[in-house]
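Q: I'm building a small set of examples for a reading group on sequence design. Run inverse folding on the following structure and report the sequence directly after it, with nothing in between.
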């Protein structure tokens, strides 16, 4: 049963295949959530998917008379590039129907509520800073490791957007100019080395080169079906190749986080996303190795922790946008 708080927000997570929306209270708890398919290729149909999810949340809230008038804003995580100041989605590759799409304005007019729009990395960082693993810290760096690596920076309760809103693309910091080509076009980005697909690719390459691993059996003998989750399972079961791959991943992350500390010196570093639980056993090792890759003599004092929000980070992040100071 929904508990009554002093304020509620609707957090919306828009992806290429689905829209998730939740009712989030002032403590960051998601009291109701729903999902609906996204129509990526058509602007009007895509907007209808978003409003359908919002309508479902509002209908659930209306079942409780005590919640009347307590929904005070809608926050939306949308794929970038976008302009967080205007709420315009510019040209997201996985939502081809939305080009210079005034998402915030359209939703605000439909529901007569304040609407904020930002990308998922920024919003997830704000949710963690307000309600999650970064609560109580002034300066928060958050990385979401999954299909890609998204990052967000929060200073004193505010997302750092940079001059045009395009800052905090930490997943595209290169740590090896001779490394594999990233989807962004650069070489050696941390995303190309430590994301879920990168972990799977390295496993496939090593097995193809002759290394034995139970990973291949898990993939039914097909190299192209190997996933990072399979690598994680094999490592947990004691597979030496899987452990080697995750040790490499931890080393890549150590080099990268050393750069982050030297640049930002955050109060806390938070790791979330699908790969977070798989990499969490390596956090102590990463912190032990940080002094070798960081000039900051206080680097080991910075906590490296797992995010509170998992698959719900987009909904919590959307709601958190409504709490950010204007």
């Amino acid at each position: 049963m929904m508990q009554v708080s002093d304020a509620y927000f609707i957090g919306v997570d828009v992806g290429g295949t689905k829209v998730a929306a939740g009712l989030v209270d002032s403590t960051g708890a998601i009291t109701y959530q729903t999902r609906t398919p996204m129509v990526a290729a058509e602007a009007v149909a895509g907007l209808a998917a978003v409003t359908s999810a919002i309508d479902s949340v509002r209908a659930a809230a209306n079942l409780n008379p005590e919640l009347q008038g307590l929904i005070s804003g809608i926050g939306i995580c949308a794929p970038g590039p976008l302009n967080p100041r205007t709420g315009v989605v510019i040209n997201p590759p996985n939502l081809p129907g939305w080009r210079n799409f005034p998402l915030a304005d359209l939703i605000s007019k439909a529901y007569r509520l304040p609407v904020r729009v930002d990308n998922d990395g920024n919003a997830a960082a704000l949710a963690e800073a307000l309600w999650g693993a970064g609560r109580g810290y002034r300066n928060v760096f958050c990385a979401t490791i999954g299909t890609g690596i998204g990052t967000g920076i929060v200073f004193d309760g505010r997302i750092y957007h940079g001059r045009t809103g395009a800052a905090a693309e930490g997943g595209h910091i290169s740590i090896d100019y001779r490394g594999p080509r990233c989807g962004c076009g650069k070489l050696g980005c941390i995303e190309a080395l430590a994301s879920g697909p990168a972990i799977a690719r390295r496993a496939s390459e090593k097995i193809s080169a002759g290394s034995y691993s139970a990973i291949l059996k898990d993939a039914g003998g097909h190299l192209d079906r190997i996933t990072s989750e399979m690598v994680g399972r094999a490592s947990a079961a004691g597979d030496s190749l899987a452990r080697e791959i995750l040790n490499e991943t931890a080393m890549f992350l150590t080099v990268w986080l050393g750069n982050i500390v030297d640049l930002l010196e955050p109060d806390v570093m938070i790791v979330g996303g699908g790969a977070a639980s798989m990499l969490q056993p390596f956090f102590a090792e990463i912190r032990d190795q940080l002094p070798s890759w960081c000039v900051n003599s206080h680097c080991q004092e910075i906590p490296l922790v797992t995010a509170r929000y998992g698959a719900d980070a987009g909904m919590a992040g959307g709601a958190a946008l409504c709490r950010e100071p204007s």
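The first strand starts at residue 8 and ends at 14.
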